[in-house]
């Protein structure tokens, strides 16, 4: 395809030089006709036998003693030329269609392949590579960089070939016409060539730098949008906008430099070209007049041949710019494609053992993370894990327990030593097979944004629904899933955000169980669960561990009571090994943990006879809540339709849940393009720049009409009989050309610089505003899958830079095109209105082509973006959860899903190639037709009305150049239309009024904030799941300085109530009162500034430890003393001092370089720095081992003093000294009092403490 397309382009390129041959003989015809007319003005001469005679019969001779030819039949000649033109025109139309169609189709295929290969390669990389490359940057690579490559290899190549071919043929025509003049003109060309090369180099370097800055900004945006709750809770919106803006500022500087350089070079090129005109006309006229080597037509032929060649070479240079941009972008992509992953998960190599016993051994393993080579995590670790036994790892946070699991999954390879399975080094085993033997349940499980059933199926492809139900029953998840309106078809949201921690955990366990693994890795699998679920899940896990090799990492000793072997870790070594009783005797690591934990357990009556009680209570509560659940479910269904009651799994409620989204969706599909006035309004501060730029542009536009006048004037001189007059006129013209050349240089520079500056400032402003607007939205907005972090970052990146298409350099183009058109028309109509009207008939056609082309392209732009966004979501989710995917060995299914999402964009591209080709072909041939008609009619006017041929040339040149200017203006219409749509999308975001206003001005503030909090009859459902009632008339209050603890099974609405207090959401009914004032009347930033939060899975940002702690107070800059003070209170200081960079240590993306306990303590320090009046602890210690937990717990007790505190806990030992304990079930409080009173009541709480029995 590319070869045929290339051939067509070459033929198309040859058409214009061919036309010159016609043009030159036509010029000669005109000149000889004019000379004849001049000669016959004298009454005494007549025309006879094609020669002019005096009346007396002697031959009339000119001053140079030559006879004069006569009898030119101008009309017949012109008709002949018109046919030539039409023929060439039709050929061009045919060829140029194929040239575009073939190249664009080929490019679409290649880009499709490249996208697939790149994503596949990234999914193939080992985990260590992801530690060193941020997900945001990879996403930017996949969207922006590949688009740049696409621009470089699609229609641009064919246009490039066409221009080069015109260049070659132009020179050939020149040499045929007259070699001397050709050589003179060529001597100037190197100046242009060198400039073009320099420009391309400079632009490529600057583009590279600009891209890097934008990728950084993209990474910031991705990070912030993924952790939007943390940003909102700590009021970091402004700080994040600043951080984003800093990266944009850097990109802006490079962008302005790029624009200026382009301006300077363009000015230089025009200057040279115009000077070259002067030289050529001056020398050419010498050849025509003095030595008679050339006819006037040959002068035109040579001059235009070389000029056309030079101009096309010049026009080929923007193509080079696109190529260079494309190459720079492709380099990043090919670097990744060429990199061999150290651990290739798609590799077919390696053994698969016939029988796996499951003996695992670590031999002197030393390891550090590739992104932090200076910190040794494992230090000469040796241990063995016997097949079929349950081995527990215990030890303080950061001692290397989780790392061993990652080595066993082959996420990393050890730096020294080896890990063996049944005596085989795992590096020699097939990696997919090895991972298929392993089931893993992590502490912070990652779910994918699809249904519950699909999430479980990720464990093992092709399982039946029975298997899934069986696995969920084993993982104690079946009951809660069946309580959801859509049971297994419930969507879990981005990262599983629609489910509670315990629910996510149980689905993750079901996912591990369905694999039927030989080796089960439990990385604190039950830490996120409440007592009740933990007891049941623990039972499930114990059942599952039978006959499997199991490694369990635990901080709660209750979870490892029945482990066969316990291995104690300290500083990356296995320091002890044995059964529980042996290790207690040794008094080592394990012993300290046990003693620490036992101090925490209160001396509650544990061994009362409780069976009868348990069952009795269980039944009562169960029946009560299930009837309540049932009525709630019935209510939500009757709202929908009776269809759901048939009991079949209709997805009605699913439609119900997406109705509001689909309305929004449609709104998004057909965005009304934004009015230009509004886009320009954002560019207001730059009006001086735009004014200057427009002045430059206006002059640049008038160069063409000025040229038309000068050029036709020179042609006209050839018919003057007086030689001296001739020479004088020509010299004058040449001087004028020189003057225009110099001014042109400065005006181009002005236009380039001024518009680059205003355009870049606008892009930066819009990106910043867009980002600010996103951070302004309420949290519920981010729950909508359309606004996933991946989709939002893509939108930020593409929309803002597209808006440049309506301002900036585009305005320059439009201004210069308009001046050009205006001036040309005035000239044309002034000299000959009849001829102008004839040519005008063709202009609408040229214009229409441009408009039509624009319409088609924008039509596609919309669909294209939509389709690519879907693929972007897949890639974004895959890269964000790469560890989970690798653990499940599911890379290939994500690659498949991504490839499926690419089918649509690919089809669009093919369709687009067709239509673009047709328009292009048509618009290319119109110009030839216009020439045919106008010269034919011009001949008629010269003949019948005695119009001077000079004027025919002047009018035609003027109108045609203005036509090309019109064409140029219309070729920007695609950009322009894209810009309007992108702007509309952006404005839609800017205009959206968030349901919860976070401005500093709205709402009330007061000085003596005390921290009294009351929930009155709160009902609440999440906006994306309106049919699941989460809070059901919640009533609870806490006085200033008291501690309120929520307990209850997971999913009963504990964390939701905290989110209402933070005003991430507002209750559907009922009120939250703060110091007696309804929460929705309180100023949001003020309210949040009084609240410190420590959540179960703390979100850290990819910066230093100190900066993460400073994040606690974004109103002022936090001093180092305050940071250290807070770190000491959070028991973090000593650990930080052991790191090489102390507080400047980078924590990695989302804190991935730290252990969970370390992240948790940073989060606590961050909350303490705030010095809040209200402290929210959402399972703040569940992720810690016993030793850290003790210390963090005392740090929290310290932090609670004098503050209102709301804690959510599953481990009841942590809340025994709370002032009020509220037991929740299905969104209501079923009992509340102090610990002792509740124990005395022997109600739901008593059951929880003594047995971990259900509260539902």
From TrEMBL:
The keyword DNA-binding does not apply. Residues 3-323, 691-978 form the ABC transmembrane type-1 domain. GO terms for cellular component: mitochondrial inner membrane; plasma membrane. Residues 360-596, 1013-1251 form the ABC transporter domain. Coiled coil: none annotated. It is found in: Cell membrane. Keywords: ATP-binding, Cell membrane, Glycoprotein, Membrane, Nucleotide-binding, Repeat, Signal, Translocase, Transmembrane, Transmembrane helix, Transport. One of its GO terms (biological process) is oligopeptide export from mitochondrion. It is a multi-pass membrane protein. One of its GO terms (molecular function) is ABC-type oligopeptide transporter activity. Residues 1-16 form the signal peptide. The keyword Cell membrane applies. The chain crosses the membrane at residues 82-106, 157-177, 183-204, 261-282, 294-313, 687-710, 730-756, 811-831, 837-858, 915-934, 946-966. It holds the Pfam family ABC_tran. Belongs to the ABC transporter superfamily. ABCB family. Multidrug resistance exporter (TC 3.A.1.201) subfamily. This is Bile salt export pump.
